[in-house]
Amino acid sequence: MTTAIGRRTHPLWFLLPAYALLLVFFVLPTAYQFVYAFTDWSGFKASINPVGVDNLTQLASDGTLFRALRITVVYAVLVAIFQNVFGFGLAVLLERDTALNRIARTFFLIPVLMSALAVGYVFQALLKGTGALADTTWTLPVVALIHAWKWMGLAMLIYLAGLKTIPLDLLEAARLDGASRWHSFWRVRAPLLAPAVTFNVATALLGSMNGFDIVQATTGGGPARTTELLNIFIYRTFGQGLFAQATTMSLVLFLLVALMAFPVIVLLRRREEVL
Amino acid sequence: MRRLVGATGALLLAIGLTACTDPGAEPTTGDTGAVTWNDPAAKLDGVKLTVWAAQNSNTVPQQVIEGFQRATGASVQVVTIPDPYEQGVQTKVATGDKPDLAFWQPTASMLTAINAKTNLQPLTGAPWLGALDPALKDITGLLDGTRYAALVTSPAVEGVYYNKQVLAANGVTTPPKTFDALVDLARTLKGKGVTPFYEMGADRWATQWWVQVQLADAAKAGLWDRINTGQEKFTDTTVLNAVTRYDSLIKEGLFNKDIKTATFEDQGTALLAGKAAMVVQVNSFFGQLQAKADTATLNEKIGFFPIAPSGNVGTVIPDQSNALVAFRTGDDKREAAARQLLAYWMGPGYPDFVAGRNTVSLETAVANPAGVPQALLDVHAAVAGSAGSMQALAVANPDLYLNLADMIAGTMTPAQVTEATQKQFEQLAKAAGHLK
């Protein structure tokens, strides 16, 4: 609402449809999470009554929630690491604009566009009988690798964009000052990728906290529930008709993602500011 | 302008609030007791009915529906709800979506889970009840004395499917009479280098049958009533001992070596090929065998006997493909038509239905088709004297099988299995209004 022109060319109420959608599909469901988590809403009866923090205390007393949370956090951290290492490696490898590199980049981007369920089922079929999806310790890293494989193309793209925006005169100056290629890469170019790192780490970490599809399709949470992410647990609980308990769990996940998002982003942003 | 935005926002919020209240929260119309039943062939031109079915039951009603459409002029559409079926149906019903009829597990726990009193039509005084075999009439489909489900095929029974040729080759001609004798037989077989039992640890769901058949006598003596009312727990000796015994039989090496990774599919292949002598399973397992071999082969190779600690007692577990429920949709005409379809199915349409499905008849006046495999006849014979399963008698159905599969994978002890099962049972039972 700064200038008269701004007001005339963009009437504020043009935003209303967008905000209405946002309200109905994002704000309301989130707000309702805070309501239904404290009720006894279930598939078994028609009435919904407030029950206070019963659902929370009951979930806290049951080890399953904490196990699912631990599995989810481990999964998210593994995905964040794998996805960024692969993405960064690919970006550096395919940085130069040769015809071969362009084709290769396209191919690495294909998994990003594929359906997550399709990716899960393909890997399930590929790994069947190898024992890779039957080990109670190593299956979680395996599904994290699959998740990272699917999304590494996107990380690559963002790192590529970061590499391309580094001013050439900076690199020239470094070379004139006698920096080796190794030195100028790690001391000049890598630090300038900080904004790309922030974006990639944050999206990989927080995106995989909400992971469901790939793991559900690959292992369904098995073996022995060692890959049962919180979302799979929520899905299972919801399917049993325990809607309030499932809502309480998604509330816990929502709060956890929010709690992790702020420090992660603040920390990474601070790194950017140093530049 | 700001006020306009504020007002619109508040309005939208208010609309959202009213729109998002529980759609399942319709007033429970009390059972009036009098349910009217149309003539099965009465004209229903222009009436459209929807039947929900699972991937493994969507072809069951095909023939009946064709006959019903011809006889009445109604149009009936079968909609397949993807697996896991029960989860999908519950979610849809909770959000206000209802079919006219659906395949549904007719047990008390699952009728509770779909909130039968609010969502389902009572089938009181159904015209086909008199035609049913008296031993089967009230075996399932009832919740607190009201009938909500129509049993259309013989309910599944937990028991032992065995490879006749493997047992015969090892000099066994009569099946064991008790659970202990079954274990003794297994040890003898193992001594001769045969894999006695085959279990599917990777697909998990069959693991619970091993515990349940051991509980058959206790079930007859009221185990599930005591568990339902909190007088007994899964963690008490009855259930814990059954779980512990299962675990010790596995550790003793009486099962297939790949028990942790074996699937449902592997189980069927192994029993047919004689790679294992016996499998504790339910009817859907035989369905898998039927997909792999013809009736003659099955009659030659596969036998069935029920088992319990005290003798050859089966444990009955009606499943989703055995029965249908009719929903309260609020449209009287469609509700009556849905009841009429059931009356047609179990009435004039029944002989064609059992012949077409090649399945055991539940009605005394309708003979079994000639092509029903012997094992299925044996399974059906076990229904009458059977004990109830956890699914049939408990008010809630915890994931015992998941915990047992974890035990097989080595991440849970028998005590932890019963503890986790009890906890989940209490949670579900409380949500359903039991175990206050």
UniProtKB/TrEMBL annotation, chain A:
The keyword NADP does not apply. Keywords: Cell membrane, Membrane, Transmembrane, Transmembrane helix, Transport. One of its GO terms (cellular component) is plasma membrane. It is a multi-pass membrane protein. Gene3D superfamilies: MetI-like. Belongs to the binding-protein-dependent transport system permease family. This is ABC transporter permease. The lineage of its organism: Bacteria, Bacillati, Actinomycetota, Actinomycetes, Micromonosporales.
Automatic annotation (TrEMBL), chain B:
Residues 1-19 form the signal peptide. Transmembrane segments: none annotated. It comes from the Bacteria. The keyword Cytoplasm does not apply. InterPro entries: Bact_solute-bd_prot1, SBP. The keyword Transport applies. Gene3D superfamilies: Periplasmic binding protein-like II (3.40.190.10). Keywords: Signal, Transport. Belongs to the bacterial solute-binding protein 1 family. This is Carbohydrate ABC transporter substrate-binding protein (CUT1 family). It comes from Actinoplanes palleronii.
